[in-house]
Amino acid sequence: MVLDAPGGPLRLVPDAAEREPGPGEALVAVHACGVCRTDLHILDGEVKASRYPLVPGHQIVGTVLATGPGAELERGARVGVPWLAWTCGECRYCTSGRENLCVRARFTGLDVDGGYATRTTADARYCFALPDGYGDLEAAPLLCAGLIGHRALRMCGDAARLGLYGFGASAHIVCQVARHQGRRVFAFTRADDAASQAFARELGCEWAGDAMGPAPEELDAAIVFAPVGALVPAALRALAPGGAVVCAGIHMSDIPSFPYADLWRERSIRSVANLTRADARELLDLAPRVPVRTRVTAYSLERANDALEDLRGGRLEGAAVIVTE
Ligand SMILES: [Zn+2]
Ligand SMILES: [Zn+2]
Questions:
Q1: Would residue 19 count as lying in a domain?
Q2: Ligand nearest, relative to CA of residue 115
Q3: How far is the CA of 97 from the centre of ligand 2 (A)?
């Protein structure tokens, strides 16, 4: 499924040519690919790809069919291919443990073709072994919703009372990890979204309610997953002194102005961008020990546009996953 230009929709290309794996690359038979809100931002042109046509998709689960020279992966191995596709290894970020900020980074499904396909190629150094006990569908959402959600959770430090703003694919994973760590979790959704609120309570949130209303008590940290700038000052108002608002998305509508008093007393606002390979290893090691259980809705590859529109319309519980074979 290719995106020809910002605005979409995606177009099925039944006879796409298969690329030979280059040096260091693996050719991967895609079994499943998670659908991420970033894919929707790319479709809408809010996040610009470096070239079109483009195959989106950056939560890929597949098996290695062939490898190019120097690629250290076994044929037949099950691998996960995440958002981070390549980094330079030389810039000030790469050399200080922050490859997520690499100035020349390339991203799967943005700069290189991704997983809304039956085959893809990936740099073997950025592919990961996946934990046993997860089917291909269930593993897919770990690869971005899980990894970047977990990075956002780490930015919350030792916050005991955690607010999650927007309860989609990422929050449903982060909630389980946070409960496992002994944190108290509060879910903030649209006022009338009773389904998401019930889902959040089912996964261990002790409260779920209106994101724009008052919080039931002060929070030590809040993660904003929904791409709605107005949630940032709302989350800030819910924080105890010293608390942090962590914005986990790649794109958000503008943040309205707010009184400085809401920020004062060492509250902070920060964003989380991308992932490092260390983040990936950490979450993929932790997930089976929680154990994180992902809730997925499967779509055939031909129905990728439907999956994206269901995500846009808030009609999903957990994560949408495209299943290719
Ligand atoms: Zn993503
Ligand atoms: Zn770099």
A1: no
A2: 1
A3: 10
> Does residue 325 register a pLDDT over 70?
no
Q: State the distance from the centre of ligand 2 to the C-alpha of 143, rounded, in angstroms.
A: 21
Q: Is 22 left (phi over 0), alpha (psi -120 to 50) or beta?
A: beta
Question: Which residues have beta carbons under 5 A from ligand 2 (an ion)?
Answer: 87-88, 91, 94, 102
Identify the pLDDT of residue 227. 95
Ligand nearest to the CA of 248: 1
Helix segments in the chain, DSSP class H: 37-44, 136-139, 145-154, 169-180, 194-202, 231-237, 277-286, 304-312
For 13-67, how does the pLDDT look when each residue is reduced to its tens digit (9 = 90+)? Answer: 998 888 899 999 999 999 999 999 999 999 999 999 999 999 999 999 999 999 9
Separation of CA 270 and ligand 2 centre (Å): 21
- Domain span at residue 304 reads 25-144+275-323
Q: What is the CATH number of the domain that holds 236?
A: 3.40.50.720
When divided into structural domains, the chain yields a total of 2
Question: How high is the mean pLDDT of the chain?
Answer: 97
